[in-house]
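User: tokens in, sequence out, please.
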């Protein structure tokens, strides 16, 4: 009886569990196959990337800002892991459901393929219907696998009965041990009866079923082999797709490696002595490329081949439409400048600010070459809309771009071609404006228009149309909740007010008077400025607060405001305990 029970089709919790496992394998197969197919289309067309991008586009600004504050540059990884977690749960549920409604459960996998296809074709950077193929083909593979695996949880069909020649007899042994012999297609003699031998042993193997139940029990070994094979094939498809997608960027990598940026026509002056203070734990005056903050919506970093890259300038007030290549830009006069960039998502005291040496083509020169005039000189366009290869749109005031500041199409960062994460081959840099209204990475199109005629990506999501960087300051050391020793403690940090410059920084201990800090030497008004204050620290708990005043005479406001709609404001404070 035990052997017979072990081969009966699974029921109850066991059947649901095996169904859930089948759903998990089907979901894994769908994603893996989609990854493989996306290599034949483009990496951004994969369902996880497409759905993730659609989720970013539809996430309320407050939620998006919360994610940036809590997860930093890992926000995209967290989003993708979250999507995979949701898909895992849904796959388990669909698999369990399929044990009761096999066809409907399998169709549920196809439904998620439809969602992925719609997300892929609805993205701003979609190349067309072909972007739907990874989701469609992946969901078909997953649905077929789920239908097949769940089907293997039932009894094996009985083998067809062998043909019996007329005139022969067949013998059937029942479970009670009675053997019955039946003649086939033979006329029985009057009074004749089939021969039955009482007490004969059964010829049926326990657990394999009989002609009465039409099956031979559950093929457990077959299900295990099928599930293992499916997992192995899915893994191979996924790894193959990942490798192929990675190889697609080799041309872009080679093009970046081959770049030699000419010496600038207008070089940046050397950083003056005294601009970088020798204080432990203060932010370095120049931010290394690897440490520079990155905040954008790209789940897959675009890898653009510089040899194929083109930039088009067109729109209102453009007398001569222009298309330039990367090689064209390298032949133009280049400027080199130290410029501090700040993200609008930077909270008071936050990390999303960095200073780098940029080299590129002055944007105003290109616009003038096209006949563009700023509004102050009668130009019809007051907004410059920059478009990225990933569909991002960023709107900048034409007046600011052409007012004489060092707005540029940057080609290099800290002496090297732009890193891919920071916009290679070309990005915009505009001193004094938050990144969401100026710093378009992977730029490929510039359109001149008006703010009334067009709302860029972030403006559609309730951010302000215009956003000059606010005067802010930050305490880098001591760290929040630090425990410095009593005596002289060096309080230090950075302050910024790009395109206005920092004039003064003050520090307050607890509710005491404001004391002026020592400012490092200024590099330019477009860079941040380090500061320090020697504090005679007494034992106990203390609150340190900093504020800055810019060159216009405006002192950083105490009023705390969130990042939305045009950047955070308020004084930065840290609480420490002096031992």
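Assistant: Sequence out:
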């Amino acid at each position: 009886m035990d052997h017979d029970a072990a081969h009966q089709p699974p029921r109850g919790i066991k059947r649901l569990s095996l169904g859930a496992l089948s759903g998990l394998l089907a979901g894994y197969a769908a994603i893996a196959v989609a990854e493989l197919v996306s290599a034949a289309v483009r990496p951004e067309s994969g369902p996880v990337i497409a759905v993730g991008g659609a989720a970013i586009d539809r996430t309320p600004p407050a939620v998006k800002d919360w994610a940036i504050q809590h997860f930093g540059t890992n926000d995209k990884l967290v989003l993708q892991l979250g999507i995979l977690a949701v898909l895992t749960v849904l796959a388990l549920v669909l698999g369990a459901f399929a044990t009761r409604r096999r066809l409907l459960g399998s169709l549920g996998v196809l439904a998620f393929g439809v969602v992925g296809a719609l997300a892929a074709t609805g993205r701003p950077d979609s190349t067309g219907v072909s972007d739907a193929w990874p989701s469609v083909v992946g969901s078909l593979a997953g649905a077929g696998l789920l239908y097949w695996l769940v089907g293997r949880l039932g009894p094996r069909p009985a083998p067809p009965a062998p043909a019996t020649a007329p005139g022969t007899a067949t013998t059937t042994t029942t479970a009670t041990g009675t053997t019955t012999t039946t003649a086939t297609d033979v006329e029985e003699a009057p009074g004749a009866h089939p021969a039955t031998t009482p007490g004969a042993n059964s010829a049926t193997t326990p657990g394999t079923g009989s002609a009465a139940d039409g099956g031979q029990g559950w093929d457990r070994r077959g299900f295990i082999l099928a599930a293992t094979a499916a997992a192995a094939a899915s893994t191979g498809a996924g790894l193959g797709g990942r490798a192929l997608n990675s190889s697609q960027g080799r041309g872009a990598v080679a093009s970046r490696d081959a770049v030699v940026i000419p010496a600038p026509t207008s070089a940046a002056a050397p950083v003056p002595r005294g601009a970088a203070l020798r204080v432990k734990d203060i932010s370095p005056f120049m931010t290394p490329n690897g440490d520079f903050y990155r905040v954008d919506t790209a789940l897959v970093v675009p890898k653009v081949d510089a040899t194929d890259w083109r930039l088009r300038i067109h729109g209102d007030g453009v007398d001569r439409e222009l298309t330039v290549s990367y090689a064209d830009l390298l032949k133009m006069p280049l400027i080199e400048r130290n410029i501090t960039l700040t993200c609008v998502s930077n909270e008071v005291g936050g990390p999303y600010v960095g200073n780098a040496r940029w080299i590129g083509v002055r944007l105003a020169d290109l616009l003038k070459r096209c006949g563009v005039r700023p509004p102050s000189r009668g130009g019809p366009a007051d907004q410059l809309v920059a478009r990225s290869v990933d569909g991002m749109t960023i709107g900048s005031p034409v007046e600011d771009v052409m007012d004489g500041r060092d707005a540029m199409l940057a080609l290099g960062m800290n002496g090297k071609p732009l890193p891919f994460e920071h916009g290679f081959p070309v990005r915009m840099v505009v001193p004094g404006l938050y990144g969401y209204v100026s710093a378009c990475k992977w730029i490929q199109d510039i359109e001149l228009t008006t703010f009334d005629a067009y709302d860029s990506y972030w403006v559609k999501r309730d951010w302000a149309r215009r956003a000059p960087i606010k005067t802010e300051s930050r305490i880098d050391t001591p760290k929040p909740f630090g425990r410095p020793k009593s005596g002289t403690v060096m309080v230090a940090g950075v302050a910024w007010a790009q395109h206005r410059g920092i004039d003064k920084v003050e520090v307050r201990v607890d509710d005491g008077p404001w004391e002026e800090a020592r400012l490092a030497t200024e590099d330019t008004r477009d860079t941040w400025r380090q500061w320090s204050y020697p504090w005679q620290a007494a034992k106990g708990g203390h609150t340190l607060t900093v504020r800055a005043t810019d060159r216009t005479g405006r002192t950083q406001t105490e009023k705390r405001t969130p990042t939305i709609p045009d950047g955070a404001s308020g004084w930065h404070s840290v609480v420490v305990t002096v031992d």
